Amino acid sequence: MTERRKIQGDLHRHEYIEMMFVCRGNLTNRFVDSEISLKPGDLVVLKPYVNHVLELGKDKKPILAFCCSFLPEVVDSGIRSLDEAAHAHPGHRHLFTPFLSLVKEDVSAVRLKLSKPDREEVAIQLEELRALSQDPDASACAQIRCRFLSLLAFLSDHCESLSQPSAQIQAGSAAPAARFRPKLQKTLNYIHNHADEPLVLKDMASMCGTSPTYFCQLFKHETGMTFLQYLNDLRIQNACSLLRESGDNIAEICYRSGFNDYSHFSRLFKKHVGVSAAEFRKTAR
Cα-Cα-Cα-Cα dihedral of 4, 7, 13, 18, to 10°? Predict the structure, then answer.
């Protein structure tokens, strides 16, 4: 859990599960074809690899929200996906109870409604996690894991009955072949970790264990984008982060992000972001 002063205003996705709890103000979590309005007391859990963006509510009031990102391995190193969590040991599976419906292909996020006392308890636990994460030495890291598991247990004990279709945000349709999903998620994870390196469709299909043609079908179903669109979008996101956070010149950032042609990078950046890389850096800072 990290402290952020600004909302990430670009469409983005990530390989981990994201939990968001709103304490003050109003937010909108927008997907490609739907959105969720969030008000104080709302808790939403997003599945991995869902393209989304956070936006301030129309009233533009100050926001206080906790955003907690995690992988299923935090419960047990042998659980590498939500699909595996659904078939894990009952004690481990219980910790995922409020959001196990995310394993369904047509569910992108689950919103949990909490009673007022439960909202107060969740806010206290998240604040303790935030405080511990500010200077995580070995002891704090151990406490963070223990307290996060305690938070999952609390939510499972108090929110199980709320994980119903009426509290879910639907997106997508027809499931891809289930036997390829774990390998596809592994391939997506690899793409995120190696986006700055040369990545070839044929190699990614081989990693997934499919033909290139079928890989393209699975990939488009899972992400809503072609492989090249997804890779370019991810590289542009990484370039945006480098423009905000580093002092490197724009040409260096182009190559560090995985592009090998500066002119192509410049055209693509403006197409995706709406302004040039130089204008984006000036505005972001």
Answer: 60
| pLDDT tens-place string over residues 54-80 | 888 777 678 889 988 898 989 998 888
Query: How remote is the C-alpha of 165 from its chain's centroid?
Result: 21
Give pLDDT, residue 217: 85
Looking only at the bridges linking them, the beta strands covering 17-24 and 42-46 are antiparallel
List C-alpha distances in Å: 170 to 12, 38, 108, 217.
18, 16, 6, 21
Average pLDDT, the chain: 83
Strand, coil or helix: what is 3?
coil
Round to whole Å and give the CA distance between 176 and 174. Answer: 7
pLDDT, greater one: 224 or 23: 23
Average pLDDT of span 172-194: 73
With a CB cutoff of 8 Å and minimum separation 6, the contacts of 51 are 11, 12, 13, 31, 32, 223, 224, 225
Q: What is the Cα–Cα distance from 199 to 191, expressed in whole angstroms? A: 8
Give all domains of the chain, ordered by start, each with its CATH number. 17-170 (2.60.120.280), 178-284 (1.10.10.60)
The per-residue pLDDT for 33 is: 66
Helices (H), 41-98: 82-85, 90-94
